[in-house]
Amino acid sequence: MSDLYRVILPEDQIPTHWYNITPDLPTPPAPPLHPGTGEPLVPEDLTALFPMGLIEQEASRERWIEIPETVREIYRLWRPSPLSRARRLEQALGTSARIYYKYEGASPVGSHKANSSVPQAYFNKIAGRTRLTTETGAGQWGAALAFAAEVFGLSCDIWQVRSSFESKPYRSAQMAVFGGKAVASPSETTAVGRALREQFPDTSGSLGMAISEAVEAAAGDPNASYSLGSVLNHVLIHQSIIGQETLKQLELFEEPQIDYVFCCAGGGSNLAGLSFPIIRENLEGRQKAKIVACEPKAAPSLTEGEFRYDFGDTAGMTPKLKMYTLGCEFVPDAVHAGGLRYHGMAPLVSHCYHEGLISAISIGQREAFEAGVLFSRAEGIIPASESNHAIAGALRQIREIPPGESPVIVIGISGSGQLDLPAYVEYLSGTMPNT
Ligand SMILES: Cc1ncc(COP(=O)(O)O)c(C=O)c1O
């Protein structure tokens, strides 16, 4: 084991291919279904919403998908991302565990979301689309897509969940700086938004509602595509660069064996990004890492949901996905981790959980922020509200370590919390509800 603090790979080590777990799964995942006919989807069903390049990835059974050179070039703005040993956190905890964290918060927009927004904008651009529509929770995805749209000269309309739009004003400012236009959802700008406002006048909104609005807007405009920041296979595939880099970086740390991986889980994309390349190592017998999805108590889809077909949005406009779900009409409490307030979980993550390749726990927001403050004070990085759930999950495990054992723990820090500071202030003042 080396005495390094951080491993930053050179730019030429940015992966050349995305990893797709589908062909490596011991059993095939269930196909998405057409919302009207209930039949398995065919690519043509999706062409009104997505460009063919992304539809092909969605249905792909290829293990490795080449990353276009233009996309790799843009990835060079922030990739490879650092993998650090949390030595000062280890000292603060007095633990014998060796803790590593993969930090995605150093991207231009502050999270892992740019790993998918850039290829999504790229494939839309080459398909001739000129406008992107999307939903966003805490605003990290909206900012990432606004940035990527700007890079490729596309316009970008964003429906941001109302509770986050109101509690995180700097996030819509960030989207505006990148050239995106954000409105609070449900809004007056779509028929589904108006209907939801009439039915639930005081709603705090949800990702499911915002998705319905963005889908309606894209479906009604032949020049527009809808972009999703999580859940779908192609998004999870794009994020696989996180885990591929981590495996190389752990080699340089001289750590051949990973014991635990902790990631927060909203729709499942950062979890899949870090863990799927490691699950491949597990399946091929090279690793025995336990993967732990850390979801919020406010939206515990894996730990309390049902594994069944459900809509990805509130209004029932998307295809039906086989996933762990709390029901598409479920509206989570307005917790600060807006990016985790989703009723379902990515079908591929759900499938892995069902097959026992991933485990899951749920974490209340006070426990999450307690962990985030401890991490910030030790490592000097303030994590995103969402990422705090991963740290809290790791801390639970670390407290259980029997004397004499030194497990290797990898934590996915999916984003920076610089724009989440009001939530930290609420936690520090003792007024944060423990939802
Ligand atoms: C920083 C951060 N982490 C995690 C998430 C949750 O999404 P996913 O589970 O797709 O990684 C979000 C979503 O907005 C986010 O902004």
Note the total helix count: 17
Structural class: alpha/beta
| Record field, number of beta strands | 15
Mean pLDDT: 96
Corresponding CATH architecture of the domain at 6-14 and 68-110 and 239-428? 3-Layer(aba) Sandwich
- Residues in helix, %: 25-40%
Q: Spell out which ligands are present.
A: pyridoxal-5'-phosphate
CATH class membership of the domain at 6-14 and 68-110 and 239-428: Alpha Beta
Rg, Å, rounded:
20 Å
Order of strands in the sheet with most strands = 1-4-5-15-10-11-14
Distance between the termini: 40 Å
> How is the main sheet built?
7 strands, mixed
The unreliable regions are none
Shape: globular
At the third CATH level, what is the topology name of the domain at 6-14 and 68-110 and 239-428? Rossmann fold
User: What percent strand?
Assistant: 15-25%
Fold and architecture overview:
- With 435 residues, the chain is α/β, with parallel strands linked by helices.
- It has a domain at 6-14 and 68-110 and 239-428: Rossmann fold, CATH 3.40.50.1100.
- 38% of the residues lie in helices and 17% in strands.
- It contains 17 helices and 15 strands.
- The protein has helices at residues 52-59, 69-75, 87-93, 114-126, 140-151, 162-167, 169-177, 191-199, 207-219, 233-238, 241-252, 269-283, 301-304, 347-354, 365-379, 385-399, 421-428; strands at residues 6-7, 17-19, 64-66, 83-85, 98-103, 131-136, 155-161, 181-185, 224-227, 260-264, 290-296, 306-311, 320-325, 359-363, 408-413.
- It has a seven-stranded mixed beta sheet with strand order 1-4-5-15-10-11-14, sandwiched between helices. Strands 8-7-6-9 form a four-stranded parallel beta sheet, sandwiched between helices. A two-stranded antiparallel sheet has the order 2-3.
- Helix 12 (269-283) links the parallel strand 10 and strand 11.
- Helix 5 packs parallel to helix 7.
- It starts with 5 loop residues before the first strand and ends in a 7-residue tail after the last helix.
- The model has no long low-confidence stretch (mean pLDDT 96).
- Bound molecules: pyridoxal-5'-phosphate (PLP).
- Pyridoxal-5'-phosphate binds next to helix 5, helix 12 and helix 16.
